[in-house]
């Protein structure tokens, strides 16, 4: 149009505005370096240094719980009973996410932990595109509802976080807590109780609870040159099935995962990076 002139955005181009922006940036960097307070970051929660010291371990736990639950619910990298959970972003649509905070969290603001959980959950399907700033919006855009609940008591631990992901064809539960002051532990995966360190190259194997099952799995990994760094075993209430959580020194290839799935005692195999 002849009567329209388009110009770049010049709102911050005055001398005074540039000075104010420079001062604000310097103050925010100084606050992070001196107290750990994070303000206006694009990929981290905006929290004070004091709050970050209180919930830092919970942020790590929440992110890894979300990642594990996302792999269980959305990933096609497993077989067996969980195959109904199709892979990809379409599988996430319509899911309901419920986060329960049980026990004494001493009145701490836990909304950044919720964001960390949602971020970890969505990272399975959108990878690096999700962060602490856009996680809630991305969940809403994908039709995922997120609900928080606070329960005054936890039967097993002083504090516990339980993440429930429900969809049309599948439902998964992951619970976690903090051991000591900062050690994250996942203590429940669906019907299985265990104490899992959520770190590294993780294999999650469901198998029949029969003699020789663990030996067959270990032999398959050994034949492939994979070392087991850490292992936990959880049993369901019926005593018929186990879940074996293994951390390996290197990632498990699709070929080795296929060999594991081919074992008679193995029901499902899921490879997760935490």
Give an account of the 3D structure.
This protein is of the alpha+beta class. 34% of the residues lie in helices and 28% in strands. The chain has helices at 15-35, 49-74, 89-92, 111-126, 135-141, 213-223, 254-261; strands at residues 96-103, 145-151, 159-166, 171-179, 183-189, 192-196, 201-208, 228-235, 241-248, 266-273. A 6-stranded mixed sheet has the order 2-1-3-4-5-6, covered by helices on one side. Strands 8-9-7-10 form a 4-stranded antiparallel sheet, sandwiched between helices. A hairpin with a 3-residue loop joins strand 4 (171-179) and strand 5 (183-189). Helix 2 runs parallel beside helix 4 (111-126) and helix 4 crosses helix 5 (135-141). Mean pLDDT is 87; it is low at 77-87.
Q: Give the strand content.
A: 25-35%
Number of strands: 10
Which strand order do you get reading across the main beta sheet? 2-1-3-4-5-6
- Main sheet summary: 6 strands, mixed
SSE arrangement, N to C: HHHEHHEEEEEEHEEHE
**Global morphology:** elongated
Unreliable stretches, pLDDT < 50, 5 or more residues?
77-87
Residues in helices, as a percent range? 25-40%
End-to-end distance:
55 Å
Please give the count of helices: 7
Structural class by SSE content? alpha+beta
How confident overall, as mean pLDDT?
A: 87
Calculate Rg over CA atoms.
Answer: 22 Å
